[in-house]
Amino acid sequence: MAPSTVPLLFFFLSLLSLEQKIASSFSIVPPTIIKATKPASYHYQQQNFIMSSPSSSSALNAIAQEEEEEVEIPPKEILDELLKTAIKASRAAGDLIFMNIGSEITHRKANSRDLLTTIDPLCERTIKDIVLEQFPDHDFLGEEDVPPGKEASAAALKAKLESSSDYLWIVDPIDGTSNFVHGMPLCMPSIAVAYKGNVVVGVIFDPHRDEVFAAQKGQGARLNGQPIQVSGEEESKLGDAIVAMGSPPAEESMEMSLRAIQLLMPRVRTIRMLGSAALMFAWVACGRLTCYWEYDLSSWDVSAGYLLVMEAGGSFTNIKGEPWDLTERKIVASNGLIHDEMLQTLEESNVI
To answer: What is the secondary structure of 247-304 as a DSSP string?
Structure first.
C-alpha cells in the first residue's frame, strides 16, 4: 500500500470501529415484541405481502424498466408462490439467527476475515428444505455450498445458470456473519429467485427489527407489506446523501475504498459501514440510506438487494454505470438522483 494511503487507513479503521460501537449499543428484544415502525416521511400505503397491481411511481418505474429490458417473467400466480415461500424460508432462518446471535466461530474460510459458525449451514439447510419441499424441480445456490474465493463463486454461479431448471434460488443464509459472531444485530438472511437468469423475487428479513423487505419484478417493493420508495428530492444532491460502503478484505479493494473515501467525505453528509450488504441494500430501498457501493460482492450478497432497490425506484449499476447482472461484483446502488454524481466521484478517485 502506498505511504500516502496510510493516514486514510487509520480513518477507515476508525470508521469501522465507530459503526461497530453504534451497532453494539442497539437493544435486542424478541421479534414478537418489536413491531416495525416508520417515520411519516417514508412512503407507506396498504398492508399486503402479495404485490397488487402497481400504483406507486416506483412500481411504474419498475414496469418501464422491465419493458425496456424485455425481461421474461413468470405468471403472477407463480410469482406470488415464490414470494410466499421466500418469506417463509427467510423467517425460519431469521429465527435461528435471532436465537443464536453471538455464536462461537467454528471455522475460518480461506480469507481469514470470512467466518463460519454452526448456525450458517443450519440456516442454509433450513432455507433449502423449505424451498425444495415447495419447488423440488428448482435449482439452489447457497453461499455455504461454495468454496471461498471469487473464482469459485463465479464458477458455481455459471454452473447453476447453465442447469436445466429455469428457476434458481440464490441464498446468503447469514449476511453479516462477523456481526452475528460479535452479537451485533446487523445480520440476516437474503433470498432471491432468478428466472432464466433474471431476478424476479427478492426477500431480506431483519429478525432483530422484525422487518421483511420483499419485492417482485414489476410489482414494486414493500416493507412488512407496505410499499416503500427510495429517498426523494430531499436527497437529490451528493451533499445531502448518507452513503454506505463495505469493508473490503483484499488489499486492492481496501486501497480503492480509501481513495474513494478521501474524495467522498467532504462531498457527502456522512458515510456508514454496517457490515451487511443485505441490510444496506434494504435501507437504500426504503430511504434510510441514499447510496451504497462496494467492490467485491458475490451473487448471493447482491441479488435480493438489487431487486429491492430497482423496484423501489432506485438505480443499480456496476461502478462504471453499466447495467448490473448476476456476474457483476462491483456495484453502486442509490436513489437514482445522486447516481451520476456518485459514479463521477468514483471515477475521479481512479477506482474504475
So the answer is: ---SHHHHHHHHHHHHHHTTTSSEEE--S-HHHHHHHHHTTS-SEEEES---HHHHHH
